[in-house]
Design goal:
Length: about 290
């Protein structure tokens, strides 16, 4: 009787999962498998006829000198946003840690940019740079200069994502027992020692989450650049994700684009996996 009831419950649970599983297979798994196959071809993305060319796409990518700039841009964006988002997020979380009405209101304002879509953020900041900051303050658009365009893109990311970082750190801070701080004060520890010896070690899980997430988001940044600059001026703000998009669609070299996408995926997987493993080892059980 128990076995029948258990099987029935399992069958019902699987039925609830079927729509999500079907959507995942249709939108993610099947295109991914097909993308691997196309990466070994010269498919242009439209023609029903294509030819298998082995590893030629992969070797051409590794020999392509124009791929250096997209890699540099992606790494620059990732390093800047990972550092700034985490530092600002932690500082704001510590400042707004107490559950007062004012702090709750301020948290909402800080978090609000995160609910705006990435594409809309790109359009908003493009308008800010060209029509607001320049006309009011005379500041030239960062997006119009090849030397400053990636800095302008980084500002978009930091503005939007700091609130998310703050939220993770708030959860971590509120989970720390105040008894640790009281004991440290009795022992004569100052604010800096309490921060370095109590707050940071016990925030290690939150730090791991934030760094891992922002690392993955940064290495595959696409929407900001696509909406605000489309890789310009020239190709000065082209990232790896935009590099993949350009070869897959505008340049009609889908096979090459798929190969670049697969290499990018493995690079992100390796980098995030290694860094997450190292961070996990430094975590302290609360």
């Amino acid at each position: 009787m128990y076995q029948k009831s258990h099987l029935k419950r399992t069958a019902v649970n699987l039925l609830f999962l079927l729509p999500a599983m079907a959507l995942f297979l249709f939108a993610v798994a099947v295109p991914f498998v097909k993308g691997i196959r196309y990466s070994f071809t010269d498919w242009d993305g439209f023609s029903p006829v294509y030819h298998y060319i082995g590893l030629k796409n992969y070797t051409n990518i590794l020999k392509d000198p124009s791929i250096v700039r997209p890699i540099q841009n992606s790494v620059f964006y990732t390093v800047v946003t990972v550092i700034v988002d985490n530092v600002l997020g932690l500082l704001v979380a510590m400042a707004l840690k107490n559950n007062t009405k004012l702090n709750k209101t301020l948290r909402t304002f800080v978090f609000m940019p995160f609910v705006i879509s990435l594409v809309l953020t790109g359009f908003m900041w493009s308008y800010m740079y060209s029509d607001v900051l320049y006309k009011i303050f005379g500041i030239k658009s960062l997006l119009g200069n090849a030397k400053t365009v990636m800095l302008g893109v980084c500002i978009m990311g930091v503005w939007r994502d700091t609130g998310y970082s703050m939220l993770i750190y708030l959860a971590g801070l509120q989970g720390i027992d105040e008894g640790y701080y009281e004991a440290a004060k009795i022992d004569g520890a100052g604010a800096f020692k309490r921060f370095t010896n109590i707050t940071l070690p016990l925030l290690a899980p939150a730090i791991t989450i934030n760094i891992t997430l922002f690392l993955g988001w940064g290495l595959k940044v696409f929407d900001y650049v696509m909406a605000a600059t489309n890789g310009g001026p020239g190709r000065a703000s082209e990232t790896m994700a935009l590099y993949v998009y350009n070869y897959t669609f505008p340049y009609n070299r889908a096979g090459y684009g798929q190969a670049a996408a697969i290499l990018m995926m493995f690079a992100i997987f390796i980098v995030t996996g290694v860094i997450t493993t190292l961070l996990r080892k430094r975590e302290v059980d609360m």
